[in-house]
């Protein structure tokens, strides 16, 4: 999967850069960052990928400027190709207020003492100021804590994987019941073996 990002993305999320730097993505609009496995599938070796070009949709040619380690399997950010948001110029859909979906997200670091109810109201006020009342686009944006990306079913994710709090609790209870059953079986087995030994004596 592909992500278009701004320079702040690498300030928020940690990536292990095997070659190149985060800044190398923003030196030119057509720069690209590949994961190690994606670079190996395209070029045979991630060590040979820097400076090579990739054609996207037969429209944009990008140059590999950095290689990052593959993300873990449980990531919510499963990107194999990371591109500069400036790529595409006037064709960029996110320059439009209509570009709202789970595929267009903004990640914001807030201070610990920020009141999230007030913060969400500021977002709503900002939208109200920038969209005319007769605009047919109905936009509602809310801040979502990063920790809730796995469990909040009101929003989509980049992976499509969600586990509600109820599902998590249910799985935990099943695990506890299985552990309890194993303990009871262990005690019963030891009791039976002890009785057998007592008879033998």
Automatic annotation (TrEMBL):
InterPro entries, sorted: MacB_PCD
Keywords for the protein's UniProt record, in alphabetical order: Membrane, Transmembrane, Transmembrane helix
Xref: Pfam families: MacB_PCD
Species annotation: Marivirga lumbricoides
Annotated protein name in UniProt: MacB-like periplasmic core domain-containing protein
Source taxon at top rank: Bacteria
Nucleus found in the keyword field: no
Domain MacB-like periplasmic core: 2-125
Membrane-spanning segments: 169-189
């Amino acid at each position: 999967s592909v992500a278009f990002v701004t320079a702040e993305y690498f300030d928020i999320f940690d990536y292990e850069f095997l070659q190149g730097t985060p800044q190398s993505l923003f030196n030119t609009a057509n720069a690209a960052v590949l994961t190690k496995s994606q670079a190996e599938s395209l070029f045979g070796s991630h060590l040979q990928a820097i400076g090579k070009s990739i054609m996207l949709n037969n429209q944009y040619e990008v140059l590999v400027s950095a290689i990052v380690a593959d993300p873990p399997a449980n990531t919510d950010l499963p990107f194999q190709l990371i591109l500069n948001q400036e790529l595409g110029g006037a064709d960029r859909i996110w320059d439009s207020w209509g570009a709202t979906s789970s595929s267009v997200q903004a990640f914001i670091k807030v201070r610990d003492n920020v009141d999230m109810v007030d913060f969400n109201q500021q977002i709503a006020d900002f939208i109200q100021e920038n969209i005319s009342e007769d605009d047919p686009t109905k936009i509602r944006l809310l801040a979502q804590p990063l920790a809730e990306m796995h469990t909040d079913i009101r929003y989509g994710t980049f992976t499509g994987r969600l586990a509600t709090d109820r599902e998590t609790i249910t799985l935990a209870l099943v695990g506890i019941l299985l552990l309890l059953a194993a303990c009871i079986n262990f005690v019963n087995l030891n009791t039976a073996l002890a009785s057998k030994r007592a008879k033998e004596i």
